[in-house]
Amino acid sequence: MKSAKGWKRASAAGIALAVLMTGGEWMLGQPGAVQVATAATTGTVSSTLVSTIQQKLNEGSASFAVQVSGSASASVKTVDQAFETAMKLDDYVNYTIKSYSYSSKSDGKTATVSVKVDYWENATQSAYVAKRSKEIRAEIIKPGMNAHQKVKAVHDWILLNVTYDRSLRKHSAYDALASGTAVCQGYASLAYRLLKDAGVEVRIAEGTVSTGAHAWNLVKLDGQWYHLDTTFDDPVPDVKGRTTYSYYLLTDAQIKRDHKWTIAYPAAVASYQQTLKSLKTKDTSRQAFYANLEETLGYKYLLPAYSASTVEDFASKIKAAIKAGQSLVKVRYVNGANKKLDLQKLLDAVPALTSIQTSSSSFPIGNADDALVTITFKT
Fold it and tell me: What span, in angstroms and rounded, lies between the C-alpha atoms of 147 and 209?
């Protein structure tokens, strides 16, 4: 009788995986406590084996066993391949799995492979998420809402009720709901659960950003995919009642400025700006919603009237604001992300000014180097 074991361990972000295969024997649990399902394989992973593992993962089973043909080491590889396939059949289940490991005992022909799974969110917690999802949907999803309205409702609810876990210990949708805090994986998992339960086609995407591993969502609306990053739209420190939309329904090209990924996800190529423009004409019953969303998403800042690239442009807009009795100007600074606005030149260009303050933020829907600049002034 020969034996082998293997394990996979999730990274601190709960995303990246590493593999190790070693010799030796390792039994999981107590004798008789592991359930066994039979599935023969002949070079390729059988659908029976995959479905058996999928069922166990859906149930949140911490340990189970399967029987496959082959040696101890070969059986572990077979089960590993089936496990990888099974867990990727459902994004939510995939991202509840923290780590998993195998041990195998074989007589050379048939092997019993014991599987142990550690979850970020156990079965009881997943049931809590399902219950809360139903309650939240009843609160925010109104009769007659279409997918566009549902995405906005879910996005805003998450931003208003979840804060980023700076301790980097809370990774699940359960954490996001039960404690009100989670890292990106928890944000993306919760968005997935709420949107899918509301009838919106959604994926969880993983990749990297400047700070390391990251997770976000892809949503499908009217046949087109868009990126949705609720974590990036909820920056720290958390501000009660704040919702931002810099990472709301972006194309691949727009989000690639600070998000990278290697997994082949559905292409997101449609401009949501153009989508809303078209919907205002096609779906007149929701025209007010689309118009308000255009305003909320800041699409007007793509227009020349709300853009500036020189001191003279800023001065002109400030003079117009002063004439209108306003004390604030907000414009897109074209190619200004890495460029400081010369405030002294601006004061000289508008003699009526006595003081001026500026703040800026990223503007992913514009050009690569655009920034959204807010100027507060006194006269």
Answer: 28
